[in-house]
Amino acid sequence: MIGVSETVEDVPPAGEGVRSARVKVRCRTIEEDDLASVVRLLQVGFPDRSEAYWRTGLDRHRTQPLPDDVPRYGYVLERDGAIVGVLLALYRMVTDEAGTHLRCNLSSWYVLPEFRALGTLLDGFAMRDRRVTYTNVSPAPQTWQMHKARGFKPVCSGQMLVMPLLAGLGRGRRVRVATPETLRLLPEPEARLVADHLAYGCIGLVCSDGEKAWAVLFQRRAIKLRPGETRWPRLPCLQLVYRSTALDLSAFLGAIGRHLMLHHAMPWFVLDAVGKLPGFAGHFFEGRAPKYARGPNPPATGDLTYTEVVLFGA
User: Where is the N-acetyltransferase domain (predicted)?
Assistant: First the structure.
């Protein structure tokens, strides 16, 4: 069971001498009353993100059914009643072939500079539960080696930009918009997952071959053509955030490409991968947006459901 609060260390305020009174800093879970302070701190740490960005994502996550012994939003570092650090921890219950288990998307870490040395303790406090599979879908490049040292393993090593229209016609393959009618073709848990993500603003498609049906979800994104380069414009695109486990995506690429072009004027999409995918026309970008997981039930490559990518948006 995850603890509610823990005093992590006594630290003198930054810039004060060793004779200053030492100050208690504790780590604890985020409560509803903390959200305004948490959002203000996140805006300091991520100045390109608006207040609406954070509140929208947290509001969406609030509706997730969770056990009583996991935090709703994550953890904070608190010094004398003031929040000086935050780590969002977005838990969800996952049911798949392995059974029902907990997964936690560790997201949006920020600690005020004078308390930065305690940031690793915040991480350690958040990852104590061995039942849980922890993921990080947006690690900063300077943290990649730290994740590996902590036992995280890559879920993907890069992204592929796919041109689906070049895959051929895909005769006999049908792609339709996910609607209440087409969702009835899917198993009930998957239909519910797709409906949730439609409400988050994702594009949902139902693929069928006349006998079986599968789902695909895309999130609208704008990606940098050259990571770290601010002078280059961002490329509008879609990112694949979910596909049914049994779906042979390559067989539906042509049909998906026609649908995306006709309905969204979008000739390409990106998806997470561990290398160039056979049968996919496009380019694999090694090292772009790697994602990591640690725990007993890592997600499938490309499964970003209920993570910050869809909850908070682009």
Answer: 25-168
